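Quick look at the format.
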Amino acid sequence: MSACFMVRAQVVDPSAREAFDRWYQDDHLPDAMKTFGANGAWRGWSDIDPSVHYAVYEFDDIAQVRAIPESAGLKRLVKDFDAAWGKKVVRTREMLSVVQRIGG
């Protein structure tokens, strides 16, 4: 089955949300997808907490996802992210093994 790398970001400075959204759309998501070699990627905002943003990168297997945390690519992306957002956005990461999928 497939696997996912998920990033949860919380925009703690509400005035940064619009610029963060544009940057993630135009720069970060395409760059991260290419850097990770992901099969696909998607992102969205929480309807429960409008400060929370999720990005999900899809892979063939969990071994690909497990290689991400120590990769040079992630280190570069983190450096770029921190330079752009500093303490205005905090984030956590998850690695998910897909164990069931129904439908497309």
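Next, a different chain entirely:
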Amino acid sequence: MIVNMHEAKSQLSKLVELVAKGEEIIIAKAGKAVATLQPYVPHNKERKSGRLKGYKLDMTHFDTADSDITEMFEK
């Protein structure tokens, strides 16, 4: 369903009820679509501890300096 900005302002409660029932609302300004009104979907992914257990981080390169970067700092 496409509604203009003025109608969206004055009928927001009604439009939200329609969205809650599964309808997607497109809001237009001067005849051009500018926004959509759609149901909120929470992104609640359960975080699990220990997910990286056994993963080994390679830090051997950490202490070596890149010669180009060192040269820039020495100028």
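Residues 1-40 form a domain with the YefM-like fold fold (CATH 3.40.1620.10).

See the schema section for token definitions.
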